[in-house]
Design a protein that fits this description.
The chain is mainly α. The protein folds into 2 domains: 154 residues, Helicase, Ruva Protein, domain 3 (Orthogonal Bundle), CATH 1.10.8.1310; 154 residues, Cyclin A, domain 1, CATH 1.10.472. 64% of the residues lie in helices and 0% in strands. The chain contains 23 helices and no strands. It is globular and about 55 Å long. 37% of the residues are buried. InterPro entries: Rab-GAP-TBC_dom (IPR000195), Rab-GAP_TBC_sf (IPR035969), TBC20/Gyp8-like (IPR045913).
């Protein structure tokens, strides 16, 4: 009964924000972030356009089939869409699914035709199909086009340089919260490629339950475009013990992390991702992300632990023991600058900051800060929302 009452209150607040003049987009963002997200696809059809500043009264016409003849991407899109069977609801009749797959191809080709600066990547269709299933083809076309020129823009460059740069934020975030996990992953030389499909599909490719996918889309649409990498970090942190119990080698750790659990506590992780964004905003991590890129180029020279442990039967045990001893030493020397880590960053301030702020700030406060950061991220984009 309490859950139903909370849900009714939230629905009422969402419709109040939608019906206000002007529409209260800040409230809609907060509703999309907070527990349960936007609740239903009916509400998403109304709110997602507002979060992306898309005018639903002026939608583009449906694309024609002639796009297929002219598009250099048609064959690749066709292959990807044909492989996307599991992205459609189980039990959907084949003829209905085939119609949707044809619409999916047309939407993608239409957006690419209208925006020649954008380059198709494998995984893009996983995002488009989510919008198609929630809002239908015409509205999906408009929403994904706006998304592609903003949140997804870096993934649609001719090269993967900007995508790799975004992935380089992952380890500094983990480092801020759990240096033991960070150091273990660095010594395993696992890199960040395990999270690539998470990032470029907004987890649509790796989560089997559609409810969880759209819940995350509510969250990401309301937030800064780097929020998916914060969510990737909290998934790794949530699996701390599994990671530390793993063999300390690239193949083992990569295999573990790339197999994403389906029973994640999504609301808790969303809350923590929001907290971490507030505590460690991208501006604070940018230097470390750049250093991570440099470290990738000189990885062989940084992993001395392997040389030391190479004769041991289980080097991961030795490494974990060394990390724990190092951390205990850091605790004793909080007031002094610690020996620089792989990313050459003092960690003493982290302990003070986390002690003061905690890792589970109430989402209400975090949501406000996340919303504020989203508004600051792209003022030209937001001016369209607040004329």
């Amino acid at each position: 009964a309490d859950f139903d009452a909370k849900k009714k209150r939230k629905v009422a607040e969402i419709y109040q924000a939608l019906n206000s003049d002007p529409i209260d987009v800040a409230v809609l963002r907060r509703m999309a972030i907070s527990e349960g997200g936007l609740l239903t696809d009916e509400i998403r059809c109304k709110v997602w356009p507002k979060l992306l500043s898309v005018n639903t009264d002026d939608l583009p016409p449906l694309p024609g089939k002639e796009l297929r003849e002219d598009s250099k991407d048609y064959q690749q899109v066709l292959l990807d869409v044909r492989r996307s069977l599991r992205r459609f609801p189980p039990g959907m009749p084949d003829d209905q699914r085939e119609v949707l797959q044809e619409e999916l191809i047309d939407i993608i080709l239409h957006i690419l035709k209208r925006n020649p600066q954008l380059h198709y990547y494998q995984g893009y269709h996983d995002i488009v199909v989510t919008f198609l299933l929630v809002v239908g083809d015409r509205l999906a076309t408009a929403l994904v086009e706006k998304l592609s020129t903003h949140h997804l823009r870096d993934f649609m460059d001719p090269t993967m340089d900007n995508t790799k740069h975004i992935l380089n934020y992952l380890m500094p975030i983990i480092d801020q919260v759990n240096p033991e996990v960070h150091d273990f992953m660095q010594s395993a030389e696992v890199g960040t490629i395990f999270a690539l499909s998470w990032l470029i599909t907004w987890f649509g490719h790796v989560l089997s339950d559609f409810r969880h996918v759209v819940r995350l889309y509510d969250f990401f649409l309301a937030c800064h475009p780097l929020m998916p990498i914060y969510f990737a970090a909290v998934i790794v942190l949530h699996r701390e013990q599994e990671v530390l119990d793993c063999e300390c080698d690239m193949a083992s750790v990569h295999h573990l992390l790339s197999q994403i659990p389906q029973d994640l506590p999504y609301e808790s992780l969303i809350s923590k991702a929001g907290d971490l964004f507030v505590q460690f905003p991208p501006s604070e991590l940018a230097k470390e992300a750049a250093q991570a890129a440099q470290a990738e180029r000189t990885a062989a020279s940084t992993f001395k632990d392997f040389e030391l442990a190479s004769v041991q039967q289980r080097p991961d045990t030795v490494l974990r023991q060394r990390f724990r001893e190092r951390l205990r030493g850091e605790e004793r020397l909080r007031g002094e600058e610690r020996t620089k880590s792989i990313l050459t960053k003092p960690r003493t301030n982290r302990f003070v900051k986390l002690a003061v702020m905690g890792l589970t700030v109430a989402l209400g406060a975090a949501a406000l800060a996340v919303v504020k950061s989203a508004l600051e991220w792209a003022p030209k984009f937001e001016l369209q929302i607040f004329p």
